Amino acid sequence: MDAFFNEMFDGGQVRAPYARLGDWTGSMPDELRHLKQAEAEALFRRIGITFAVYGEGGDPDRLIPFDMFPRVFTQAEWRRLERGILQRTRALNAFLADVYDRGEIIRAGRIPADLVHRNEAFEPAVMGIRPPRGVYSHIVGIDIVRTGPDDFFVLEDNCRTPSGVSYMLENREIMMRLFPALFRENRIEPVDGYSEALRRTLASVAPRKCDREPTIVILTPGPLNSAYYEHSFLADLMGVELVEGQDLFVEGEFVWMRTTRGPQKVDVIYRRVDDHFIDPLCFRADSMLGVAGLMDVYRSGGVTIASAPGAGVADDKAVYCFVPEMIRFYLGEEPVLNNVPTWQCGKRDDLKYVLDNLADLVVKEVHGSGGYGMLVGPKATAQQVASFRERLLANPANYIAQPTLSLSTCPTFVEEGVAPRHVDLRPYCLVGEQIKLVPGGLTRVALTEGSLVVNSSQGGGVKDTWVLAE
Amino acid sequence: MIVTVEHVTTYHYDRPVRGVVQSHRLTPTRFDGQTVLDWSVEVSEGTAGGGFRDGAGDWVQSHSAHGPLSEITVSVHGRVQTQDLAGVLRGHRERMPAAAYLRDTAPTRADVALTELARAAVAGATEDLDRAHRLCAAVAEAIAYRPGVTEAHTTAAEALRLGEGVCQDHAHALIATARVLDLPARYVSGYLGGEDADAQGAAAEAAHAWAEIWVAGLGWIGFDPANACCPDARYVRLGSGLDAAGAAPIRGVARGGATERMDVTVSVRATQQ
């Protein structure tokens, strides 16, 4: 296996951002480490943060392992990441505003019409409906991997309802409690401005018919949802109501919330319910999670839904291949962050290459998530590769393939001390009147030695992510 | 022609409901084939909500009513001056790309039989317009008009197996066969008037449905397999969708878990000017 980029050690040298952390671990006896680890776990249990990240399913009460060794970026590294993330977020929203309007990028032949119009995530119900400020995706999670000192790649975009931001906030909170001295010795950019930034973002996209300080709510599918903790956590931090479909109703031109003081008008709904369940009148008639008539109110300017129904057409894995093209088309810029080279199995030549190199590639379902239904060629047995080949051949257009990336590693506490483990990063970008990115994100770590799969459903953990101030 | 519509729908609930929310697609389409002379939609309870023109050019009006209520009536009255455009939807403004109507929905999904019906019907045809006409004729022949054998959730594939159905089944089957051939197709709801309303009989077919197929160069063209023809001056077009549910003139949800019964009376009269 190739040498992986180690974010802390460059040869024998400790890289600058990690300079102080070397002393920190070096001076920490095993007993103290075990004690702190137990303390961290107790804290996570007490606050009840046990959900699966990114809607991966699995046991909702399982604690995701928290690794105390932080992942660190310098200010310069972060500035470049930030430029790339903001750029990509702008392009994704410009794309959404375009495909639900005139579709210039399609007319210009820069993206195939079928990929958009025949896409399951393309939502005819919002065609021609311009949401407030033209924003479709208000919270964009962009998954990034690193393969070298200056090499960052975007793995995928999440324009619907990216989850996991509560880990970013809680990981920091817990690290500050466990190791206050670390935060005195290192100048670390704060992330706790996220909830206020989210609230402002949502308030800035109040609907046309709202003529006062907007009332914001978070719409959750309910306590059985794996990310319910996050929904209630964010509602709490923002000081807004957490509601379920049954708490809301449509009357006249607006959406109302039942309260003990009578109905209260709702202006902005940050929904964590999937498109097809938000309104039985417009979408799935059997949905119990939504609000009947919500889409009509939305489309006539009485309420804002964040993110907009149909936003998913921008984050589909086949559309992903065209994001660099979107950046050039809408912004006239070259992408700051590159895509991972991707083969679209729906294309004849690409499929041939993928079949010939199946054992070296990672193959994923176009609409899949959570690390399920994918093949990691180099880690798979010959039999697994063979059976995957059949599934792939049965429906090639449903798959994309990428090279097996040499994900960077970050020091991680393991049984025998500290060892390198592979990591990725999901920052959360907010889009309203302004675009905002909190300096940090969620770092996921593959805790199993050698593993490249960071998904929590498959043995992944999380880390605090630091951006050092200048 | 002048088409006069009287369309009254009453929803009865077996016990009082807490509220009703409806979405109406009950306004005649604006295009060269029809001009509204007068038109009104009245609801016995509640208030009108927001209205908007959707991407397909339909006017959608929401309506809600407070409970408790045991019934609610939607009454549509109006007159439309119509012109026979041989089914062509001329002068219609919409944003929807035709290709968006290539996707399947549960009732319009083609099975092997529908696929074979489509391929056999167009064998030898070289023009899309010709293909569309042939599909319409093939569906008309394969599914006989017979009320009562199918219901609201019957799929195109099931209707073809039965060989019988009503206008909804004909439209779904035509849409399914057209999409098999990569021709965008959609469901259209509206009214069909007879010279003499009584002689036309079945109210269910006066509240009518048909399909539109996209033919490059001409645009959307209506085809009515239930009557093996293209819509003419006897037809009033209300709106469209991927299938019957998407184009429904009235969609509604009642809060409070009651069982609903619906009574519909429709009278549509087409008279020469």
From TrEMBL, chain A:
| Protein name (Swiss-Prot/TrEMBL) | Circularly permuted ATP-grasp type 2 domain-containing protein
Q: Which Pfam families match?
A: CP_ATPgrasp_2
Q: Its domain of life?
A: Bacteria
Membrane-spanning ranges:
none
The Circularly permuted ATP-grasp type domain is annotated at 70-446
PANTHER family xrefs = BLR5612 PROTEIN, SLL1039 PROTEIN
Q: Which InterPro entries match?
A: ATP-dep_Glu-Cys_Ligase-2 (IPR051680), CP_ATPgrasp_2 (IPR025841), UCP005522 (IPR016450)
What is the protein's species of origin? Answer: Rhodobaculum claviforme
From TrEMBL, chain B:
Q: Where is the Transglutaminase-like domain?
A: 159-227
**UniProt cross-references to Gene3D superfamilies, sorted A to Z:** 3.10.620.30
Pfam families per record: Bact_transglu_N, Transglut_core
Write the protein's name: Transglutaminase
